[in-house]
Amino acid sequence: MRNIQKTALILIGLSLFNFQLFAQKVIEPKDTPAEWSKPYKPFRIAGNLYYVGTYDLACYLITTDKGNILINTGLANSYAIISSNIKQLGFKVSDIKILLTTQAHYDHLGAMADFQQLTHASVMMDKEDVTVAIDGGSSDYALGGKEPSYKPVKTNRLLSDGDLISLGNMKLKMLHHPGHTKGSCSYIFEVKDKNKAYKVLIANMPSIVTDKKFSEIPAYPKIEEDYRSTLQKMKSLSFDIWLSSHASQFDLHKKHQENAAYNPEAFVDRKGYDEALNKLSADFSKKIKQK
């Protein structure tokens, strides 16, 4: 009961704070890679899971008989691209009922507030990223600044590690994978087509986003501990298909060519996942030696 009351107070407080922040000017970084804003043709990944993002900013649509789930929304200018992609696939933007993200950075939450306003969908987020989302990224330990880098996002449900997100016939489990942000997270769930069921992991890969030594980040005293824990937990995950927050992280463009036939097996790639994690582990080991 106390936890419920605490959560309610947090949400009320953040909602009030939100009104003040919407008055601030949003300044999205301008030096972003061209691939982040480049349109990309949407396609069916596996079962009822679709890719609807830009060339590199991965966004995913999960369809159900009770409405749809959108994971990540790219930059602010991704709104038009994602909306168009959803329509190209034959779905309605207005049918989005749940909005999720893998991290509270401007390249994944840039259009979230716009989608929330249009669809009135419920935004669910790792509780450790809620404060950053509500101030538009201003308080992020690495990318924060005086002004918001995206429109502040109001969260309707705070998620903890292992929480289930249910809609229609779908159940997604949220996995708390902090480090890149305090509330970075992944999602694991099952999709099916007429031939096979696939266990899918949408992984937020724990890349290091700060140039500072971990010991020089008072705003995030647990950063080293969180990165270490996340890397260990991610290495032990079991799945069939893995995807990520950026297309480049899981070699999308090597696995799928535009207009290619439906081929879920192209994304069955445990070796690629392990290699990516091993590289990130090496980066982490190098980083902690900077003490």
TrEMBL record:
Q: Where is the Metallo-beta-lactamase domain?
A: 56-246
Q: Which organism is it from?
A: Pedobacter ginsengiterrae
- Matching Gene3D superfamilies: Ribonuclease Z/Hydroxyacylglutathione hydrolase-like
Q: What is this protein called?
A: Subclass B3 metallo-beta-lactamase BJP-1
Q: Give a single Pfam family match.
A: Lactamase_B
**InterPro entries on file:** Metallo-B-lactamas (IPR001279), NDM-1-like (IPR050855), RibonucZ/Hydroxyglut_hydro (IPR036866)
Q: In terms of domain of life, where is this protein from?
A: Bacteria
